[in-house]
Design brief:
The protein is mainly beta and about 425 residues long. It has two helices and 18 strands. The chain has an 18-stranded antiparallel barrel.
Amino acid sequence: MNRISRVTLASAILACAGLSPAYAGTGFFGGMKITGDIRAYDFTRHYSGPVAGQQAFSLGGALGVLSGSVYGFSAGLTFYTAHNLGLNNANRSLVDGTLAGYNSINALGQAFVQYHNRRVLVRAGDQSIANPWINASDSRMIPATYQALLAAVTPVTGLTISAMRITRFKSRTSDEFSQTDLYNSTGTFNIGGTGGLPGVTETGAAAAGADYHGGGLKADVWGYQFYDLAKMAYAEGSYVLPGLGGGLKPFIGAQLVRETGSGPQYLGAVNASVYGAQIGVKHAGDELTLGYDDLPAHAGAFGNGDVVSPYTTGYATDPLYTTSMIQGLIDRKTTGHAIKISATAYLLQHRVRLIASFADYFNTLYSGYTSARTNEADLDLTYFLGGPLKGLSIRDRVGIAHNLPVVHRFVYNRLMLEYDF
């Protein structure tokens, strides 16, 4: 955390602490909340190609403190840590560095002050962000967080209008914030990104958009400025149709991406479009979906027409309907189209959650990508304990991808034990 963040946070704490709690309910300290999690995580990767398999173990978690609210003002801190306990191979080429780096991570990932009431949120400092193309990507030990100014207003129930300016990024494997994104991924820095940009000089991003949820309709419209790289327009919407009886609720959805270059375009010329559609049916918490995305080729553009996505590339955490655990249309720096079927079911009084999916990717061949068709099958099983062990879960995610360049068949297993408090 840089000096500006520390000064801002300390000033807010002193200001809030000096106000009388008689005018603020439980007050700044009395209303303080502590949350967090403990994770034990084991990763394995197996390839059928010439690349050696990898394994990694890590133990760690998060500890977060959110103050009480005084006249709408509050402050928050979250500390993240992950350690391999000396259990991983000394040969880094045999270690999955995306889990928690190659040794350990200790990071103050959130340190913010905010004003929040029923209609308005303004937050400044290091923070987690939930946004279609700028998000926490929390599928490893530590989420990605951002140094940012965020403002959101809810003028009417169901509608939220937001704007943000991001200046620094802390990836899932970094201890500190820096002027980078996932295209600044080399060696032990921002492990898991796709690389392509040298140095540590990215100037961040800005975004503005609106989300509406109500009456069976969900809609999101966002505009992004990825400075020096690209500018993007994104829209996604879904609608739940009248029920079929028996609790079945069919729905339809569509998404659209249009992206062009911005500024010096350090990754090269940008010309990308995505057209997506989805149909499905819900029953209580269960869901069955079929999704399709088309990413047309544009010769001479970045990735032959691929989308520039500085905060999801290599993480497979973008919002496209066909993105899977290992791969998606965005991460491979090529174009094409894909189809994905996915099912979610809750069993044993919601103690067990089962997610299964299969995706088929039809890829455009060019000098940067050499596999015409890949596919992936994923199985995600979670058991939620109850009673005195409430908050404890055991999760295993298995992914099998075929026909990938170089590694050919890729088998991924993620076993996680987590306790949330």
